[in-house]
Amino acid sequence: MKKTLITGATGSLGQLLVSALKSKADASNIAVLVRDTAKDLVKEYESQGLDIRVSDYENTDKLKVAFEGIEQVFLISGSDLDARLQQHKNVIEAAIAANVKHIFYTSSVRKTESKDAPLDAVISGHAKTEEAILNSGLDYTILRHNLYSEVVPMFIGDKEQLLKTKAIYLPTENGKVAFIPRKDFAEAEANIIVSSEDYRNKIYEFNGSTLFSFEEISEILTDILGEKIAYVSPKVDEFESQMKTAGLPDPIVGMLSMFSQGIANGEFNFEKTDIEKVLGRKSQSLKDFLSQVYA
Q: Which residues form a coiled coil (predicted)?
């Protein structure tokens, strides 16, 4: 494998990707970009022989130094919606300056790029980052993700909460999502990194093998929990009002509302997927995932 640097290596996806890569490549060819070398996980990476590089997305000069000797950069998209486009551009600029050859980017599937769409705050940053990568002159692999399976418990609550409310309350209407767990993304993307020439200058859409609505999720959870879990899809205004009354912070209410509206609009309803070919199998079913989480 070519010398590859993973950004966001201490995050949820980054940790899984590093773990998957370690089983496929020599640790000396894996570099991780971190901000805080005092973290236990970073010390663990160092003890495993990984190459520790220090910087954040804001400091282009430090990024250039961190990218020295790196052939491939795997850019895991930043989580700060307001700042991440510039952060991504900083990474691209530093990669060019450091003579990196290939950049990978975790983007998002979408059906619309309209500024009026509920998910514009998310999608516009991805679309503009993709454009910057395509115009950079670097070899690229763009990996458009559907929603993580892990967002389901984040959206609807844990087992204790569900058994208390006995309902899923989200304005997702009849919208369906091709969920995929992070571990499947990580496995597929590790496969791509170690065989990067086969995936050079291509865009892939990673969708789950099966589509699910939240009404179907309520039926799955009814079976898992042995209690009837209802599905209620309120109007958006009512949902936001109820969530604020329940004490949820405005940013959380906004995030839930934005993604719920995107789901209702079919933004994550994709039947075609490229991940099965990369994995050599179907993605983990949401039913199996939920059985593990809510058992």
A: none
Q: Note the pLDDT tens digit of each residue in 86-144.
A: 999 999 999 999 999 999 999 999 988 888 888 998 999 999 999 999 999 999 999 99
Among the listed residues 147, 152, 169, 148, the one whose alpha carbon sits nearest the alpha carbon of residue 294: 152
Contact 57, 88 (CB under 8 A): yes
Are 94 and 152 in the same domain?
Answer: no
* Same domain, residue pair 118 and 166: no
Quick check: is 183 in a domain?
no
pTM: 0.95
What is the extent of the structural domain holding 43?
4-145
Q: How far apart are CA 105 and CA 225, in angstroms?
A: 38
Tally of structural domains, the chain: 2
